[in-house]
Amino acid sequence: MSASVVFMFSGQGSQYYGMGLELFRYHAMFRKGMEELDEIFGDHTGGSVIACLYSEQRAKPPFKDLLYTHAAIFMVEYALAQLVIEEGITPQFVTGSSMGEFASASVSGIISVEDGLTSVITQAQSIIATCEKGVMIAILHTPEIMQSWPVLQQYAELVAVNFSSHFVISALANSLTFIEAELKKQRVTYQLLPVSYAFHSSYIEPAATSYLDFLQSVSISAPQIPFISCLTGGRLAAIQSNYFWDIIRDPIDFRGALNSLPEHDEYVYVDLGPSGTLATFTKYSLPERSVNSRFTLLPPYGANIEQFTAMIRQIKTRS
């Protein structure tokens, strides 16, 4: 029996300048998809994600401009998914973490690609207009420390448990000094994510009203490809408009989403995000089910067209 293919789409924190550059330069279908989406972005903002993302003159600080990072993540993931499908790999399931759920929903047929991109643009604009700057921190430790360290309780909210020794917190930017001091004092390894707002927490609540109003205009259909939610930790057959607010306001349950897949099936996990983040989480969340079945199509160190083609062949042989 062949394995089922699971497309996985990551969200904020996985982006970087130049993601997908090799495909953009050398693969006509990916470039065409990016250019079509960039036209939509330009119509709404007057800017260009492609110019921002692939400028050769650009210095390489963290890629954190929310309006551009939101759109860039969606554009790269959706264009890559269409390319992989064109190569003959059809997903039996799709799942996304955080705003990766917009690309997941568009690939599944829940929302159109135009509405998906417009939704992430409008979401970014709403957050920029109404919310204080924030931070997100990935911590290599058991999440139980949230209950025992007063500094974390006072200044941060737990927003994701990715596996038993890796979790993420959100906080306001002016709290970062206190949180980092505590983590260093406790000799805990952590990483400040390239994000400018405290997603999945009460700190972005001011954006709710305007964004929920916008979502009333988005047309929503039943999934054409089974849709596994990282909000509910399970498969969804019907979605309401407020779902697309909840997925960036409420905590992430990626482990629950993976564990909701039928246990008796074999799976090939294909990470279409720009850093391979979800492939790593899959490795530690499902070690016995994901051995030799995880593929990162856009690794953070870059991959040339020959390596991409080789990975596509490997996925085909396992699915």
Automatic annotation (TrEMBL):
Domain Malonyl-CoA:ACP transacylase (MAT): 8-315
SUPFAM superfamilies: FabD/lysophospholipase-like
Matching Gene3D superfamilies: Malonyl-Coenzyme A Acyl Carrier Protein, domain 2
Name of the protein in question: Acyl transferase domain-containing protein
Keywords: Phosphopantetheine, Phosphoprotein, Transferase
GO molecular function, one term: transferase activity
Keyword presence, Oxidoreductase: no
Entries under PANTHER family matching the protein: FATTY ACID SYNTHASE, SI:DKEY-61P9.11
InterPro entries the record matches: Ac_transferase_dom_sf, Acyl_transferase_dom, Acyl_Trfase/lysoPLipase, PKS_NRPS_Biosynth_Enz
